[in-house]
Specification:
This protein is an alpha/beta fold and 303 residues long. The chain has one domain (2-195, 239-301): Ribonucleoside hydrolase-like (Inosine-uridine Nucleoside N-ribohydrolase, Chain A, Alpha-Beta Complex), CATH 3.90.245. 38% of the residues lie in helices and 19% in strands. The chain has helices at 12-22, 41-54, 78-81, 103-113, 127-135, 165-169, 171-178, 189-192, 201-207, 211-230, 240-249, 291-302; strands at residues 2-8, 27-34, 61-63, 119-122, 145-149, 184-187, 196-198, 236-238, 254-258, 260-263, 273-276, 283-289. The strands form three sheets. The protein has an eight-stranded mixed β-sheet with strand order 3-2-1-4-5-6-12-9. The chain has a two-stranded antiparallel ribbon with strand order 7-8. Strands 10-11 form a two-stranded antiparallel ribbon. Strand 1, helix 1 (12-22) and strand 2 form a beta-alpha-beta unit. The protein is globular and about 55 Å long. The chain binds alpha-D-ribofuranose and calcium ion. Alpha-D-ribofuranose is lined by residues 9, 11, 13-14, 37-38, 123-124, 149, 158, 164-166, 240-241.
Length: 303
């Protein structure tokens, strides 16, 4: 089993990623760290705890950043994830509580305690990871791997034509992570937009006749309606965050290329992830995905 820390801004596809990770025997999810992004930190933390309760799993949750490293926070994407950042399914407060230790200190302590063992899967803004590597640069050489959902290296963005949501929400954090020496695999829109969950699958989840099946179907339905608004006729939603988890479960789902990557920090192209070949790098960009193989694996694991 691979010990992983899942850094989330729970949101709807984050919730799907959490379920996929917890239902995959290849992974040992040792902790969840939360970040602002799809909503304010109190929402994303509450939502993470609610998803754990839905899944009847107990994994420690550590609260992270509530704003970007250095720039004002953007408006939250309520049009994509709902006012509650969970597709209007955050109908109660969780019983479970987050840990008292903060996300950044947890990441640092766990990586130092288990050198070269921990994989960090980051599927929100990279603020927590940036703060951790700024506070303790040594972790860059101690983390086994970092796999992020973020960026749009050779394709259009989803917030502006140039930028993807997780990166533009905190461009400085992403640029810090990419230049830190951390061994990063970038699972960007280059591959995630090819992993569409068809609308029809929600009926299968409802047919399970379980509370969790109905919960996830209702939640994901909100996300699919948002996708239909931006991409009329798309007939589903992209499994952005689940694919980052999938790449850790089975690296064979994707093809990777080594690139240096920097982030544009000002002007119209702010948040753009730019690949360049010069110089050594520990960054790999996912450029191709076995979409159908991954989708079937995800669906088989989810419930
Ligand atoms: O661009 C998609 C990413 O932004 C996903 O991680 C989604 O949850 C949002 O955080
Ligand atoms: Ca996310």
């Amino acid at each position: 089993m691979k010990p992983v820390i899942l850094d989330v801004d729970t949101g709807i596809d984050d919730a799907l990623a959490i379920a996929y990770a917890l239902n995959s025997p290849e992974l040992e999810v040792i902790g969840l760290t939360t970040c602002f992004g799809n909503g304010p930190i109190d929402y994303t933390t509450r939502n993470t705890l609610l998803i754990l309760e839905q899944l009847e799993r107990s994994v420690p949750v550590y609260i992270g950043a509530d704003k970007p490293l250095s720039r004002p926070a953007k408006k939250f994407p309520t049009h994509v994830h709902g006012e509650d950042s969970l597709g209007n399914k955050a109908e109660k407060d969780p019983v479970m509580e987050a840990e008292s230790v903060g996300a950044v200190d947890y990441i640092i302590s766990e990586v130092k305690k288990r050198p070269h063992e921990i994989t960090i899967i980051a599927v929100g803004p990279l603020t927590n990871l940036a703060l951790a590597v700024q506070k303790e640069p040594e972790i860059a050489s101690l983390v086994k791997e970092v796999v992020i959902m973020g960026g749009a290296v050779f394709v259009r963005g989803n917030v502006t034509p140039y930028s993807e949501a997780n990166v533009i929400t905190d461009p400085e954090a992403a640029d810090c992570v990419f230049s830190s020496g951390l061994p990063v695999t970038i699972v960007g829109l280059d591959v995630t937009m090819q992993t569409l969950l068809p609308n029809s699958k929600l009926a299968d989840w409802r047919a399970l006749g379980t509370d969790v099946g109905h919960f996830f179907a209702d939640m994901t339905s909100f996300y699919m309606q948002a996708y239909e608004t931006f991409h009329p006729g798309i007939g589903g939603c992209a499994l952005h965050d689940p694919l980052a988890v999938g790449v850790v479960i089975d690296p064979g789902f994707v093809k990777r290329e080594k690139w240096n990557v920097k982030v544009i920090l000002e002007g119209e192209e702010t948040g753009r992830t730019v690949a360049y070949a010069e110089g050594e790098t520990k960054i790999q960009v996912c450029t191709q995905v076995e979409a159908e193989t991954f989708l079937n694996h995800f669906l088989n694991r989810l419930f």
